[in-house]
Design goal:
Elements lengths: L2 H25 L4 H12 L7 E6 L4 E6 L4 E6 L19 E6 L5 E6 L9 E8 L10 E9 L1 E6 L5 E6 L4 E6 L4 E7 L4 E6 L5 E6 L4 E6 L4 E7 L5 E6 L5 E6 L8 E8 L4 E10 L1 E6 L5 E6 L4 E6 L4 E7 L4 E6 L5 E6 L4 E6 L4 E7 L4 E6 L16 E4 L7 E7 L7 E11 L7 E11 L5 E7 L14 E12 L2 E8 L4 E11 L20 E4 L7 E9 L2 E11 L3 H4 L5 E7 L10 E10 L10 E11 L5 E8 L8 E8 L9
Antiparallel strand pairs: 1-2, 1-28, 2-3, 4-5, 5-6, 6-7, 8-9, 9-10, 10-11, 12-13, 13-14, 14-15, 16-17, 17-18, 18-19, 20-21, 21-22, 22-23, 24-25, 25-26, 26-27, 29-30, 29-36, 30-31, 31-32, 32-33, 33-34, 34-35, 35-36, 37-38, 37-44, 38-39, 39-40, 40-41, 41-42, 42-43, 43-44
Helix pairs in contact: 1-2
Length: about 650
């Protein structure tokens, strides 16, 4: 078999190796992967990434979450007035409720409900400098006085004007964001809570909680125009679709366990409610995807998140969140929702590719609304070795992708990406499945266009040579060096996307390209195969820690009788994993062979993992490898032998 054919098939095989890495994540609590995670975080370079700002009502603070690590990196404190013994300390005001960020991402605006100490005292808006989100002491630019008991703030698409709803005096404060001054006060004739601008910025719509109506505002002239009647009571939140055709309003109703709420749909051109979609009890916070396809509403009393299709105007999914969800914001890629859990002092992260909540992230007391900074303009150079590594979906651990990046193999700035997607059949009974992803990239590409291949009908560590078949297309892009999104369309009708978080590798990755050559512990990372049995092989990731060098990877192969079985059931994969207490000796690694079972394609169902053998992986050179294996359990029990493999592609710079 030619080397080119072997390379093509090996890419298919990469799927199994990725699966191995994901399984390692599951197994990691007991063994090596926990160490791997800790190591990876310790050596990873810090990159610009999206941040989430969460207002904490009870303790009057703002928590700042780095979405690349999903950890609170700083807390904006409440301001402290000067005393005779202590100088004044800058911070936000009392009992923050609403929050917004300008389109440039440079300023965060926090509405301080509690600065209205009574029904006659004005409230305030604190302006935070967000140019350095992780700063230990984020600067408070200024404090703006608004109306009485302010709640929610929205910023127009141009980033020039903000509207703040003042509940007690039934007004909107219009703020000029260039000068941070109130330029108009608009009477709305009711108890205003939620507010949203149309995409062109010419109008705004305001929920009037006591009137079961929505006020229409001329946002050019700062004037109230009319109101729209709703069929449910207590409208709270409001969003407008990207096309500017429909508004979606969360109707809190009576706000108890026995009274379900709804989401009202308003035809903005006609100025009427067209339908009301029943949801859970106490719907309040609401958001819409950037493509306008899905509306998300947090049900306060149900502890759930309802997902609504804007095409069918029906609830398509219900996600359990936690006690009293009270705020929701979507990251700018539309892959995660950050939901504030008022009753738990935390933020749940909902993976929208599988509609599963994970976390939560501990924040302050009674977190309410939140906003996220944009990652829309972030770019990552796809022509770099730093993208090589293991990537997985945290909600569906046990499945993932092992990516191999070969920069400049087709000339300067022109490289190749291929990866192995290790996963399962569409039913739990179907067993393991794997695919390969392959495509060319350039240093200026923002998205990698990849072909999805599958190979079936081979035999474990033997012929015949299997030719891969194209079964779909995929697009892979990276928000930064630790977050990716894989969109896929299979010929059999499966389509969707899965978010990816880096598990291993990436020591040299930066948004602009590799920061240098890989360290010695990373030099053997890559894809390995036997040219005589092309279509089977291993994808490995090696790295160094203070304790030594470790390895984990995937062995993509087939069942012993795979040729006879045929189809997807002929596929088989294993993961190879160094025990955390056994670093490499020289260029030789002792590893456990593990198998996974029971998963479902792109589904958070937990898999079962079992150690089925041991192996020794040795690298005589940077381009040759031997694998000596012994299976002690599973379908291959009793099998043993040695594979002599060669590297697919060129070794990294500096590897001798």
């Amino acid at each position: 078999m030619s080397n080119a054919s072997g390379a093509h098939w090996l890419r298919e095989a990469l799927g199994p190796s990725r699966v191995a890495h994901t399984l390692e994540k599951i197994w990691g609590a007991k063994r090596f992967l926990m160490a791997a995670l800790g190591i990876w975080f310790s050596v990873g370079t810090a990159f610009a990434a999206p941040y989430s700002y969460v207002v904490n009502y009870t303790d009057s603070t703002v928590s700042v979450i780095d979405q690349s690590t999903n950890k609170v990196v700083t807390t904006v404190p409440t301001r402290v007035a000067a005393t005779t013994t202590d100088p004044a300390k800058p911070g936000i005001g009392v009992n923050p409720v609403g929050i917004a960020i300008n389109p440039a991402g440079t300023r965060v605006y926090v509405v301080n409900f509690g600065d209205s100490t009574d029904t006659k005292t004005p409230g305030t808006v604190s302006v935070i400098d967000s140019t350095n989100p992780a700063a230990a002491n984020p600067a408070i630019v200024t404090t703006i006085t608004v109306g009485i008991r302010p709640q929610i703030i929205a910023i127009n698409p141009a980033g020039t004007t903000a509207y703040v709803t003042n509940t007690v005096d039934n007004t909107l404060s219009a703020i000029n964001l260039a000068t941070n001054t109130v330029t108009a006060t608009i009477k709305v004739g009711g108890y205003p809570v939620g507010v949203a601008f149309t995409p062109d910025g010419t109008k705004a719509y305001v929920t009037l909680a006591d009137k079961s109506r929505v006020a229409v505002i001329d946002a050019v002239n700062n004037a109230a125009l009319s109101t729209i009647a709703l069929s449910y009571s207590n409208p709270i939140g409001i969003v407008i679709d990207p096309a500017g055709k429909f508004a979606y309003v969360s109707d809190y109703a009576f706000g108890d366990y026995g009274q379900k709420g709804a989401v009202s749909v308003i035809d903005l051109a006609a100025g009427v409610e067209t339908t009301a979609i029943p949801v859970g009890a106490g719907p309040n916070a609401i958001a819409i995807s950037s493509d306008g396809v899905t509306v998300y509403v947090a049900n306060y009393y149900d502890g759930t998140l309802s997902l609504i299709s804007t095409a069918t105007k029906a609830v398509t999914a219900l996600v359990g969140i936690g006690i009293n969800p009270s705020g929701i914001s979507l990251d700018s890629t539309g892959t995660y929702a950050y939901v504030s859990i008022a009753g738990g002092g935390s933020v749940a992260i909902v993976d929208l590719s599988v509609n599963v909540a994970r976390g939560p992230i501990g924040v302050g007391q009674t977190p309410l609304y939140s906003v996220t900074t944009s990652s829309a303009n972030m770019t990552v150079n796809l022509d770099q070795r730093g993208l090589t590594g293991s990537w997985y979906n945290q909600s569906a651990s046990g499945q993932g992708i092992l990516l191999e990046s070969m920069p400049d193999v087709k000339g300067a700035g022109n490289g190749t990406l291929f990866g192995g997607w290790f996963t399962y059949d569409v039913t739990a009974a179907g067993g393991q499945r794997w695919y390969s992803l392959q495509g060319d990239v350039t240093s200026t590409d923002l998205v990698a266009n990849l072909t999805i291949y599958a190979g079936t009908g081979g035999n474990f560590n033997a012929g015949p040579v299997v030719s891969p078949v194209a079964v779909g297309q995929a697009k892979l892009r990276f928000v930064d060096c630790t977050h990716g999104i894989l969109s896929y369309t299979f010929n059999d009708g499966r389509q969707g996307f899965t978010t990816l978080n880096r598990l291993t590798g990436g020591a040299t990755c930066t948004p602009t390209g590799d920061s240098g050559s890989p360290a010695a512990g990373d030099q053997y990372s890559g894809s390995w195969y036997n040219p005589d049995t092309s279509g089977q092989g291993l994808v490995l990731n090696t790295y160094s820690t203070a304790q030594g060098s470790f390895l984990f990877g995937g062995w993509f192969t087939y069942a012993q009788n795979g040729q006879q079985t045929g189809g997807g059931a002929s596929q088989n994969w294993f993961s190879l994993q160094s025990p955390s207490t056994q670093p490499a000796v020289g260029n030789s690694y002792t590893v456990n062979i593990n198998a996974g079972s029971g998963g479902i394609f792109v589904n958070p169902l937990a898999v079962t993992t079992t150690q089925v053998g041991t192996a020794t992986v040795t690298f005589p050179t940077c381009t040759t490898m031997t694998l000596t294996y012994s299976f002690t359990a599973g379908a291959n029990k009793g099998l043993g032998g040695t594979l002599n493999l060669v590297r697919l592609g060129q070794p990294p710079t500096g590897c001798q």
